Amino acid sequence: MAYDITLIPGDGIGPEVISATVDIIEAVGVDINWDKVEAGANTIETEGTPLPDYVINSIKKNKIALKGPLTTPIGQGFRSVNVSLRKKLDLFANIRPVKSFNGIPSLHKDVDLIIVRENTEDLYAGVERMIDENRAESIKIITKKASERICRYAFQMARDLNRKKVTLVHKANIMKLSDGLFLESGRKIAKDYPDIEFEEVIVDAMSMKLVQFPQDYDVIVAPNLYGDILSDLAAGLIGGLGLAPSANIGEEIALFEPVHGSALDISNKNIANPISAILSGVLMLKHIGQFDAAVKIERALSVVLKDEANRTMDLGGKQGTKEFAEKVIEKVS
Ligand code: NAI
User: Matching InterPro entries, A to Z (predicted)?
Assistant: First the structure.
């Protein structure tokens, strides 16, 4: 049976890393009809919007999407398409596994944690206004419903994956109401999971502890903004953004994308590391039940990465994006 899956190549390094991922998934033999659609700055000229309706309709129809990064203009211009997609499709859970690769130069070894980030609200909703020309205001909305939903997701995932501990990150000592509500929600849900250890850590302390002792953490649940920042930090512990995949999960729809952005500084040079995108593809394959294919790709990546000469520039090697994908394809086909 062929799967129908929406494919958004993205911009910057997006098309390069997504093309590497699609080639590898095809080589491993999973039959997919890719419904390729464009979004972002590319479609502003042609469609007059960075998020045309046909993108949303395709994802709603197929229920699964693989996406490359999309550039968001800083300080002006259109709002983030990435954030709009998560909100419009109610992809409430952003799952970011961070796992050490054997042999890759990194600050730490034996890191194996999963960040579960609330994906629909917090300061990230971008509800902002100028009060007057000298004062700006951003509104942070945290709801009980979204907080309980993401905390339950984190605990249930911990139980399903046989993980031992959930660490909730907050700043409720200062934001007593908004972060306080998130924390209260976590405490409430924790009572339904007595088999999972529950721990609360303030976000500044968490940043330090993650840098010093990342092996102490298992599943981390956080509101949107802290989750965003901590997951880039965690990626840095194991070798960088080029290695970190993510899944955006809703009740019915799931969208998979690398954690990194469009990296315009290295785009169109065939030097981007495609592993983050490939591992996002691996998460997608597991989600649709293609476990053998997923494990085959994971093993191939490990084998290819053992040889320093096979690595991309960010990992100290000289291999191009395409050539790296070809090495992985040799191992999976
Ligand atoms: P970025 O992740 O694009 O780049 C940060 C640094 O990491 C750069 O030096 C870049 O060269 C490097 N890097 C990133 N991915 C890499 C890879 N696969 N291989 C090798 N090096 C890699 O973050 P930045 O510069 O803050 O954002 C650029 C644009 O991407 C912005 O417009 C931002 O809004 C957007 N973005 C989009 C995301 C998405 O589509 N989900 C996520 C994050 C950022």
Answer: IsoCit/isopropylmalate_DH_CS, IsoPropMal-DH-like_dom
